[in-house]
């Protein structure tokens, strides 16, 4: 059935993306030192109307919201692979195909079958209400979990040798439950947890992973709105749906990966005789803090519905002129949220902007490279990844199983959710300043009349929430190309209002649908910008590196050492 639909898609695509002449208007790509004329022409040929056609198709109801492991998700993957083939890319997936199989399992907590209680040393019990006071997932993919384990307060739950900070010093967590604070120790010092900017140590995903590495059976993340930068409702809603995990992930071992309300954590500390929670949080953010095992146990029964499935990353490449391996990688996720069977009316999460736009850009980049009159200096890979909305799982798998060793990839450029609302005059490139390619990025941005903007919310940790992060974790210099708020013909307030309206009324909602009046010239401009950056990265005499002291520098050195040993 899927193959027949894929054949129909082929003819739709052929008509939609190949039936009109290219429109190359004016000086779309500036003359830039190091960029050959043929590469400049290839970048200029990137067509906003082709991007439009891709976005329109990928966000049709036919694709059912592109949920991973569903028919619509498979159709989206087939579409991306068909486009790679039409453009002339060579397959870089499994067994000579474009598809890299990603084994997954999804866990849905059965809310009315769960029970959570704190039990004090003298037997006093505090029962917790699921949803309003606690939410949890059993990460192991088993149907039931029963827990009766002591609770250890480990502050922020961070072990960061480069900052001489270890909340786990002298603590044995095996078989226990870690009580941790969301975020990281407060700081204005850029040399200590990067000051006000959030590092990965502050992300709840790190806290789960670190506790799991130390043998914990559970984690209770203390939610406090000012520290998390979002309310309890965001936490509750994110846990209400199923959550997917990679099969074989060594850190997905927690029987209770949980969050608790601030007031619930206060009840816990009162039961333990430790006094005021906010004062305990303040002390945990200062040097000299020591973890403490509470005279309280967590008793819990968790039931889950588990769905096992396989989704696919779609990977292709354009060979380079040189046999040396200094590859460039472009990424964009094709998945979205699928269909919500519990919603009346429109229940398809079409994901037109998120991330039909990134896929459309990726496909035009692939076509431009493949049809360039000259080959790029080194191989260029294109990966449309799955399960981003499930926690960057497709890109995590890609990072674990890259098409060439990570040490041979000089740069990853990621595209995710670029609103087609006009021609940008600014870009947000959070993380690009962390690599030694940054001066080139600034030079190219200036040539494209793009102001480079700092991260508007460094405390939100946005760098760790998109697919480039999965590649950075294995050492590959990586960042996303995103719009700023300044657009041609408008002031920054107009752009800010457009993004606010999208986030309030369309982001992760069924209303994120294709609009016929969208202006894709801006998507094309940022595709051309990324084309030039990738070509110049490939042109460099040596691979791109993280700046000294960066948190990913060690992973880069390890991947390069592995490369040189082979």
Could you give a short description of this structure?
By secondary structure, the protein is α/β, with parallel strands linked by helices. Helices cover 32% and strands 21% of the residues.
Explain what the structure shows.
- This protein is of the alpha/beta class and about 575 residues long.
- It has 2 domains: about 1-20 and about 35-105 and about 310-565, 3-Layer(aba) Sandwich (Aminopeptidase); about 105-305, Glucose Oxidase, domain 1 (3-Layer(bba) Sandwich), CATH 3.50.30.
- The protein is about 30% helix and about 20% strand.
- It is built from 16 helices and 22 strands.
- The protein has helices spanning about 1-20, 35-45, 50-60, 70-85, 205-215, 225-230, 230-240, 260-270, 275-285, 350-370, 395-400, 440-445, 470, 490-505, 520-540, 555-565; strands at about 90, 100-110, 115-120, 125-130, 135, 145-155, 160, 165, 175-180, 220, 245, 255-260, 290-320, 325-335, 340, 350, 380-385, 410-415, 425-430, 450-455, 480, 480-485.
- It has a 15-stranded mixed β-sheet that branches. The protein has a 3-stranded mixed β-sheet with strand order 20-19-22, with helices on one face.
- β19, α12 and β20 form a beta-alpha-beta unit.
- α1 (about 1-20) runs antiparallel to α3 (about 50-60), α1 (about 1-20) crosses α4 (about 70-85) and α3 (about 50-60) crosses α10.
- The model is unreliable at about 1-10 and about 15-25 (pLDDT under 50).
């Amino acid at each position: 059935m899927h193959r027949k639909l894929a054949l129909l898609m082929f003819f739709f695509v052929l008509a939609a993306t190949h039936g009109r002449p290219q429109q190359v208007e004016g000086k779309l790509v500036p003359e830039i030192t190091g960029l050959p004329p043929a590469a400049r022409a290839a970048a200029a040929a990137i067509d906003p109307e082709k991007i439009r056609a891709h976005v329109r198709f990928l966000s049709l109801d036919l694709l059912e919201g592109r949920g991973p492991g569903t028919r619509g998700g498979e159709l989206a993957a087939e579409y991306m692979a068909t486009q790679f083939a039409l453009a002339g890319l060579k397959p870089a997936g499994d067994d000579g195909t474009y598809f890299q199989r990603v084994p997954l399992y999804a866990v849905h907590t059965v809310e009315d079958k769960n029970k959570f209680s704190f039990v004090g040393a003298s037997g006093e019990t505090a029962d917790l209400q699921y949803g309003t006071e606690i939410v949890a997932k059993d990460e192991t993919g088993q149907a039931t979990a029963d827990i009766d384990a002591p609770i250890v307060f480990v502050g922020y739950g961070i072990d960061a040798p480069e900052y001489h900070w270890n909340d786990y010093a002298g603590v044995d967590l095996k078989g226990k439950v870690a009580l941790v604070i969301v975020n990281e120790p407060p700081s204005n010092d850029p040399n200590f947890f990067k000051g006000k900017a959030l590092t990965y140590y502050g992300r709840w995903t790190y806290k789960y992973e670190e506790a799991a590495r130390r043998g914990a059976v559970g984690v209770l993340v203390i939610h406090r709105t000012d520290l998390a930068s979002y309310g309890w409702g965001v936490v509750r809603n994110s846990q209400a749906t199923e959550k997917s995990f990679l099969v074989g992930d060594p850190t997905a071992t927690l029987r209770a990966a949980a969050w608790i309300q601030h007031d619930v954590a206060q009840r816990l500390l009162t039961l333990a005789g430790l006094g005021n929670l906010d004062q305990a949080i303040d002390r945990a953010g200062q040097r000299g803090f020591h973890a403490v095992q509470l005279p309280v146990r967590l008793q819990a029964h968790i039931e889950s519905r588990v769905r096992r499935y396989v989704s696919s990353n779609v990977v292709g490449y354009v060979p380079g002129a040189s046999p040396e391996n200094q590859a460039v990688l472009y990424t964009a996720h094709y998945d979205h949220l699928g269909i919500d069977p519990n919603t009346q009316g429109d229940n398809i999460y079409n994901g037109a902007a998120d991330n039909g736009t990134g896929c459309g850009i990726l496909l035009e980049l692939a076509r431009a490279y493949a049809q360039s009159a000259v080959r790029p200096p080194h191989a260029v890979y294109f990966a449309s990844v799955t399960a981003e909305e499930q926690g960057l799982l497709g890109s995590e798998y890609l990072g674990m199983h890259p098409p060439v060793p990570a040490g041979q990839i000089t740069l990853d450029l990621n595209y995710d959710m670029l609103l087609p609302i006009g021609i940008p005059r600014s870009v947000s490139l959070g993380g690009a300043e962390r690599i030694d390619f940054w001066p080139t990025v600034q030079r190219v941005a200036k040539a494209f009349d793009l102001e480079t903007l700092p991260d508007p919310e460094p405390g939100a940790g946005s760098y760790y929430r998109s697919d480039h992060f999965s590649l950075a974790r294995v050492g590959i210099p990586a960042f996303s190309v995103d719009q700023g708020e300044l657009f041609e013909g408008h002031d920054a307030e107009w752009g800010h209002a457009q993004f606010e309206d999208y986030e309030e009324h369309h982001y992760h909602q069924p209303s994120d649908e294709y609009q016929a009046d969208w202006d894709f010239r801006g998507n094309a401009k940022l595709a051309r910008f990324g084309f030039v950056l990738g070509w110049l990265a490939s042109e460099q005499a040596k691979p791109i590196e993280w700046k000294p002291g960066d948190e990913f520098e060690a992973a880069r050195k390890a991947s390069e050492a592995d490369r040189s040993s082979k």
